[in-house]
Structures are given as C-alpha cells and as structure tokens.
From TrEMBL:
Pfam families: EamA. Coiled coil: none annotated. This is Chloramphenicol-sensitive protein RarD. Keywords: Cell membrane, Membrane, Transmembrane, Transmembrane helix, Transport. It is found in: Cell membrane. It comes from the Bacteria. Residues 7-143, 153-285 form the EamA domain. Signal peptide: none annotated. It is a multi-pass membrane protein. It comes from Agrococcus carbonis. NCBIfam families: rarD.
Amino acid sequence: MADQARAGLWYALFAYVFWAFVPVYLQLTKGVDGFELIGWRVLSSIVVALALVAMTRGWLRLRTVLRSRRDTWTLVLAGHAVLINWTTFVIGVLTDRVLETSLGYFLNPLVSVVFAVLFLGERLRPLQWVAVVLGAVGVGVMVVAYGEVPWIGLIIALSFGTYGLIKKRVGGSVDALSGFTIETVAALPASMAMLAFALVTGGLTVAANGAASVLGAAGFGVVTAVPLLAFAAATRRIPLSWIAFAQYLTPTLTFLFGAFVMHEPMPSGRWVGFILVWLSLVLFSADLLGRRVRRVQPAPPLG
C-alpha cells in the first residue's frame, strides 16, 4: 500500500472512530438542554474554525469562496442541513436513544441512493433496489414492534442525506476548512435562536451542571472540527469505495455503546429491524464491490 493511501486509511479510521465516541463525550453534558448544547457547539465551532483559518493563513481561500454567490448559498443550505442533523443526534443521545441515532447512520447510505434517483436522475441496479426495499422493511418492522416511528433515526438519515446532496453541488471547488467555516457561521442565527429558546423556557443550564458540562460545551467545537478535517484529508488520499465501507464503523460502534454500555432495550422487534437493515447494507456493499471488481478485471486475451 502506497504511503498516501496508508495515511488516507488512517485518517478515515480516525475520523469514524472519533465520531463513534461522540455519544460517550456527550455524557459529560447530561442534564443540559439539547438546544442549548447545540447553541454552544456552534459558537465554539466558529471559534475553532476561525482559529484554524488564521493558523493556516486561509483568509484568501475563504474570500475566494465567498465571492461565488452560488457556492456561498449552497454552503449556507448545507450548514442548516447539518445543524438539523447534529441537533437531532444530540437530542437522541441526551434522551438515551443512542441506538436510534445509530439506525440513522446505518440508513444514510440507502437514503443517499434514493436521493440520487429522485434528484440526480441516477438509476439503481436490481440488487440496490432489493437493498433499499429491505431497509424500508426493517424500519417498518421497528414501527410495528414499537408502535411509533423511529423519528430520531429517520431525521438523522434524511438530514445527512440532504447534506451530502447539497455538498455534491459544490464538489471540489471549495476546500474543507473554508466550507466548514461558512457552514458553521451560517448556522449561527438558528443556534442563537435555540439558546434564546432555552433561556426563556428553563434558563441556561451548562454552568449549573458543573465543570464537566462547561468543559464539554466549550470543547464541542474541537469535537466537531477534528473528525471533519480528518475525513476531508482521507477523501483526498483514498478511493471513495474505501470510504463507503469505513462509514459503517461509526454506527456499529455507536450501536455497541447503546446496547451494551448504556443498556438500552433491545426487544425482538428491534433486533429483527436492525438485522434487516444490516442485511440491506450487506447487499448494497456487495453490489458496489462486485461492480468495482468487474471494472478493474482485465479483459480476456483474444485468439
């Protein structure tokens, strides 16, 4: 394996393992209102982003992106999509629904495929259709077993799928740090509204919950930025197919944390639903891998 590819693989593994431990990190902020925590997250992320821009002398790159109205407004939309994603994720973790957050990220590849069909005119191969239907059946089983829709998981999957769809419009024209900075600043008004809502409805609770909560809220910007930048470094060094397989690492570790550390309930209906979703991902991944192998396979000799 070439040095670049090896480094890219380590960056990808670091990013996905880091993301998987965010629910553990959020245990520091137990008792803090979810909306309030997201407000502090955006504020601390802006500080981290601007500090990184200054350290890397990225002001010119940032200014170049801002000159493009198309790229700027696309990143503004992306910022709001990822804000919805993170808000839902944080609320899910703080309300002891870690397993449902992992479901959302397991479903995300399937949602991305459906979005590609609906909005980009892409066509699915038969095995991909089977995977999508099987994933939908898995969610349906959970709805029947629980008597309610797994909203946390569905919103996470839909919002992150929307984020990916929006980011596809930007492509490689925007560097990772400039994109992260603009997206985070764009989320500031909505996050301030969340802080105001938390203040009016129950007061700000970070300081009242002790030093661990204060440190957790203050460090949220670093927790947000570090894996995103590592992920960006990985995508520049390794094939997208490697990323596609690595992305299952985060929800798998999150699932294990929710089931065996937090001891969230796993009745038979939830197990069946998760198994169907996992099976759909196996089919989806097998189709991608098989297509890649056929593409690189040399043609048979003539004569």
